[in-house]
Amino acid sequence: MGRNVMLEALLFDVDGTLADTERDGHRVAFNQAFSEAGLDWEWSVELYEKLLTVTGGKERIRYYLDNFNTKFERPEKLDEFISGLHQSKTNHYTQLLSEGSIPLRPGVERLLNEAREAGLRLAVATTTTPANVEALLTHTLGPDSMGWFEVIAAGDIVPAKKPAPDIYTYAMAEMNLKPEQCIAFEDSENGIKSSMGADLITLITINDYTRDHDFTGAALVLDQLGEPGQPFTVISGKVEGEFVNIDLVRQLHASQHALKATG
Ligand code: XBP
Ligand code: MG
What we know:
By secondary structure, the protein is an alpha/beta fold. 43% of the residues lie in helices and 11% in strands. The chain is globular. The chain starts with 8 loop residues before the first strand and ends with a helix. The model has no long low-confidence stretch (mean pLDDT 96).
């Protein structure tokens, strides 16, 4: 039997985990920025799936140019050009969110509230731009919700984005927590590589873009967190119940620690 480690904090990825933001949010905003800049680039739903291999919007634009639009005549100051496009994309994206176009995924708001009531600490660990996190939280959970999260680790705050573990390591250092006191919520392969690289137990909720990703090592893979009357489907792992609540999270955390200690 391993030591009894107390669960102290829940660490959340944003895009794909808190909300399905990629297809109808980020992708649309990229296209708006391209067209506003007079570019004929169009990121389709299918192409965007390939582009999601790379995290970070600026990095994604560069990856697109390197692999899918090699004939584009690059301006001399490519970094500035990409930064400008990305700034415009952020404006479009936050505007989309302010119109309330993207809801939180099932169970997210309930679980955040339960965690707060239980005295658990919360943080965000994402590769997206800080302004995007603020827009999503304030437009779905209200203006006070930024304060629910002790740390919002986002974007360029660490140079190496996911799948590097740095953003999770940064969040835990800011909170003075060890990985064994936390659990991460993720939706993607880059996400779980990052969280597991930071030694975190990870619960996955898949989405349309990530259902075929490799989630080896996840504590649990579900289709969604679920709600009373709207049960989750278990994709891999062992769990009882029909929706993720704090009891379930604590049990998962304890059983994974017991496994780690013996294995
Ligand atoms: C999502 C990302 C981000 C967004 C776009 O990461 O990779 O790059 O797609 O946001 P996560 P930016 O799941 O870690 O939140 O354009 O602001 O980078
Ligand atoms: Mg994600």
